[in-house]
Design a protein that fits this description.
Blueprint: E1 6-17, E2 28-43, E3 48-53, E4 58-63, H1 64-72, H2 86-96, H3 105-124, E5 130-136, H4 146-161, E6 175-176, H5 180-198, H6 204-211, E7 214-218, E8 221-224, E9 231-237, H7 244-257, H8 259-282, H9 291-308, H10 314-324, E10 329-333, E11 340-345, H11 351-363, E12 367-373, E13 379-381, H12 388-394
Parallel strand pairs: 3-5
Antiparallel strand pairs: 1-2, 1-13, 2-5, 2-7, 3-4, 6-13, 7-8, 9-11, 9-12, 10-11
Helix pairs in contact: 2-3, 3-4, 3-5, 4-5, 4-6, 5-6, 7-8, 8-9
Length: about 400
């Protein structure tokens, strides 16, 4: 069916609770964010592979015979259970004219595309002659899992083009999802794509992009939560750049300096994650409004803890103050030190309060989206089910 073209998407992610504590073996909860990356795959009339990533300014194409020859030159096998070898990545960089050590988004996105194209076709058939266009609602570099959403979309599209997974879209249906077995395969290849981009990722972002909903992560073990509710949030990007590495190192330093003070803070964050998990799992069977004040309190307590750990920032304090003035509760999400914050919206929050909060946040120079968390993972779409902005973005020839 893919010969008529495919459109699919994968969500970004936010950390609900557990950021930084997760580095020290505590529980983190990650949830799918309903800002998505979309991919359109079409057959290419010539024997070529073309990729267009307008968000990062990439327009590249290669002859399939050249890619086949390149693939044949590798001594090591490609496998979804093995990380890309340094030799493979060096050869691909040289082939694509990417400088060693180049870390710009366009370089890494091109490298991940080439790796997945060659690796998946090596395992499941010939290099397919395809045109790929990717467009995203997710800002890059904001800690929202944009690279993982890209890797998940690429893995699913290329696996479908090589016949390794089905095209689960019934005639007349708006969307289709793959089987659990197929999702596991998509996720394992997407993880290799993330390894090309990030070196040593946790695997959380691509797992959220694949399965959606909410995941519990602790010491390398990823567990999807059973049914979780879809929650409305405001997502705010303070646009303050930060270094995750520096922030993680700062927390470690504080822990070494004040272990008797900081260890209980980590234990408390762990308890918040577990309490939040219990609430989320109870909500679908009993959608009582009583759960929302609990979720709001957990946001408030965790935000104070994150400030104690030294990963707050004046921009995030401002975000919390602005939303509090409208009766809303917020916390940072991700590394902190700037970056993004999330604000919980109760079902009965008035549209006027939301609008006023958004205007005040924009007046601070922040970028704001009203969106949901807990939505579906990687999905195949019928074009008729897509919104006008997505269709416009994907209609670029």
């Amino acid at each position: 069916m893919w010969e008529r073209g495919l459109v699919l998407s994968a969500p970004g992610k936010v950390i609900l609770h557990g950021e930084h504590a997760v580095v020290h073996g505590k529980v983190a909860l990650a949830v799918a964010l309903d800002l998505r990356t979309f991919l359109r795959l079409r057959p290419c009339p010539e024997s070529r592979v073309c990729v267009r990533l307008p968000g990062v300014g990439v327009v590249r194409s290669w002859d399939t015979p050249r890619l086949r020859a390149l693939r044949g030159s590798f001594a090591a096998d490609f496998d979804e259970s093995k990380p890309p070898s340094l030799e493979q990545l060096d050869t691909l960089r040289e082939f694509a004219g990417i400088a060693a050590g180049a870390s710009a988004p366009e370089s890494l996105a091109t490298l991940a595309f080439l790796y997945l194209c060659l690796a998946i076709s090596a395992k499941y058939g010939d290099v397919p002659s395809v045109e790929v266009l990717v467009w995203s609602e997710l800002p890059t570099g904001a800690g929202l899992g944009s690279s993982a959403a890209y890797a998940v979309c690429l893995a699913a599209a290329l696996l479908a083009a090589c016949g390794a997974i089905s095209c689960p879209l019934e005639e007349g249906q708006p969307a289709g999802r793959w089987t659990e077995e197929e999702l596991t395969l998509i996720n394992s290849w997407a993880f290799q794509g993330e390894r090309v981009i990030h070196g040593n990722p946790s695997g959380v972002d691509n797992a959220v992009g694949t399965w959606g909903g909410a995941l519990r992560y602790q010491s390398g073990k990823i567990t999807p939560l059973k049914r979780v509710p879809t929650l409305r949030i405001l997502l705010t990007n303070t646009k303050v750049p930060r270094s995750t590495k520096v922030l993680v190192a700062g927390v470690k330093e504080k822990m070494l300096k004040f272990p008797a003070i900081m260890n209980p803070v980590l234990e408390s964050i762990d308890a918040i994650s577990q309490e939040c998990q219990s609430v989320l799992e109870a909500m679908p069977a009993n959608p009582s409004p009583e759960y929302y004040p609990v979720l709001e309190e957990l946001f408030d307590i965790n935000q104070h803890h994150l400030n104690v750990m030294g990963v707050g920032h004046p921009s995030l304090d401002r975000l919390c103050q602005v939303t509090r003035s409208h009766g809303l509760h917020s916390k940072l999400t991700g590394a902190g030190g700037g970056g993004c914050g999330i604000t919980l919206l109760r079902p009965d929050t008035s549209p006027l309060a939301v609008e006023a909060a958004k205007q005040d946040l924009s007046a601070c120079g922040f970028e704001c989206w009203e969106t949901n968390i807990g939505g579906p993972g990687v999905t195949l779409h019928s074009p008729s089910s897509l919104t006008a902005p997505v269709l416009r973005a994907l209609s670029q020839s």
